[in-house]
Amino acid sequence: MTLRLSSGQFPTKIVKSRKVAGFVFTETGYRPNQRLPKHSHERANFIIVLSGTFTENYGSKTRWCAPSRVIFRPPEELHADHFHNAGGRCLTIEVAGRWLEKLREHSIILNDSADFQSGLLTTITARLYREFCTRDNVSPLAIEGLMLEMIAEVSRVSNRSSELVSTSRIERAKKIIHEHFSDNLTLSVIAESIGAHPVYLAREFRKRYSYTIGEYIRHLRVQFACRELANPDATIAEIATASGFFDQSHFSRTFKQMTGTTPTEYRTNLRSR
Q1: Cα 205 to Cα 8: distance, rounded to the nearest angstrom
Q2: Out of 10, 33, 60, 135, which residue is the most buried by the measure of CB atoms under 10 Å away?
Q3: How many CB atoms lie within 10 A of CB 162?
Q4: Please, which residues bridge with residue 19 across strands?
């Protein structure tokens, strides 16, 4: 049986808690080697790891959590935790639904489980914890401002990570195309090879290289054919096949569209130089 925890409830020791500006802050403590059973929280939440380390299983994934790491969990996400030899402490910040809607108005989308770490994020969360422990009439204002800074930095870290993943995938796609341009490649095959959706691949490839994948492959085939036409022993039909064209007619038609001349005329011009 899995636990579903309402706001402010935790399956461990609560050190202190506080409600500020629509957020519920709860500091929790964990014994050495403590294991938390599979459970979920009613509200979306951020977790700041204050001390100790633990592993968390969520869905089919596992993450390792250490001090200064910030974790985001969407509402109702099932997870189980195992704290290591030193035990630990965490600050959990439960987020009301109206806050998530407010963030979406600024294109900050927090739907999926994720974890983040950066130098600036470490500074912000340290200040946030100090304000959580400060009980004066200014701390609520400071906490609200720091929460906005933290969420903005989380969004930036997430975007930078997405851009790196995008760059890596599209570069892999380009490498596959260069290695197999003469084969019968399809968008689906290339997308599956890089672990992406065909729509994503088509959009990102064109954005990066200003060509569709089909146009890019045609350019590679014609460039290859131009080099091969310098070899007098290769027939036009052989070059057409080696370049990946369906037949000589298709090759000649595409070659002329892209170079302004036929393969035969191109070869003649090479010989006359």
Answers
A1: 46
A2: 10
A3: 10
A4: 24
Mapped onto helix, strand or coil, the DSSP state of residue 58 is strand
Question: Tell me: the pLDDT tens digits for 155-176?
Answer: 777 666 555 556 788 888 899 9
**C-beta pairs of 15-22 under 8 Å, 24+ apart in sequence:** 15/89, 18/132, 20/132, 20/139, 20/140, 20/143, 20/144, 21/140, 21/143, 21/144, 21/147, 22/95, 22/96, 22/98, 22/99
* DSSP 3-state percent helix, strand, coil across the chain (nearest 5): 50, 25, 25
Token digits for 266?
A: 């191109």
Kindly report the pTM of this predicted structure: 0.60
259 Cα distance to chain centroid: 40
Q: Are strands 23-30 and 35-41 parallel, antiparallel or unpaired?
A: unpaired
